[in-house]
């Protein structure tokens, strides 16, 4: 699989400092390193201890911690969105914008072939001046990115020409519009302007998906941008161990109290013999393989969406924010591989009865909806796990990158 000769690439990666961005970038770096390419991943200083175990090729993947510049109102301990409130996240974006001189110095020293990025809209211009190709490598789905191309405020449907199978709740459209219309401190631009500049000024757009799943949305973006849309395939980490820790393998565990205050009175006592309440990271892929788990009740983050598709669990989706709503509709409306919990169109509220209906629709043996989503899920899982698919996609991704250098 490794490339030979002098065709190896050097790539600098600078993702938005959120674990949902840092982790997919590192997983992609592992795929490059399998083929002999060199990656430098810019990370927040305290993240190395978390990301280190996921680096499968430390000889080819190097971490480059970068100090977070001081910004008024941003506490010194905040390095990722995990530590930040909603009000502090724009300040973190402003702080990362201030790293431009340090990034310019790094690129000047390393002289990479490519720089991969997502939120830092100034990277394409900087890279172009240094004769480096820039790739907007999105951790969101092509379907989600497509909604950026609406001519005016978002309504329930997407922009003109957008595949019609994905609609938004009214409350979701309002939330998107508010986010897209609010100018942020420091940059003076909106999140939509940030993303559109990053996308439109880059040399190509990369997604960790495949055309069989999201082809129509990729074609829509290609028609809008008139630049290459490069697909890396479904990049999902392989479980590090087949064995679960005892606390996960042998239910129920005791003494897990980190998120007690967020639970209804008596909730843990009522469910103690039936499940686990845990507030930290968990080995999700391995849990989904556990024989006691029949349904995956997911918020539809993009990484979890792929892990769900590749699992044998029945999918019940309950999105909460942002692109999760679009991913949920991709699963429940477009691919028809899961059941979405009904929410109020105007207020976004859901009920325990609605949760129960969705779970029963997905799981009950006599459910017509359940039979349909199980059949579709089986079909797509078999396809996504077919031998050679992942490697073929990533090999093609690398070749398309090389073509940009010619």
Automatic annotation (TrEMBL):
Keywords for the protein's UniProt record, in alphabetical order: Transferase
CDD domains the record matches: GT1_Gtf-like
Gene3D superfamilies: Glycogen Phosphorylase B
InterPro entries: UDP-glycosyltransf_plant, UDP_glucos_trans
Coiled coil: none
SUPFAM superfamilies in the cross-refs: UDP-Glycosyltransferase/glycogen phosphorylase
Family matches, as PANTHER family: GLYCOSYLTRANSFERASE (PTHR48049), UDP-GLYCOSYLTRANSFERASE 79B30-LIKE (PTHR48049:SF34)
Name the record gives this protein: Glycosyltransferase
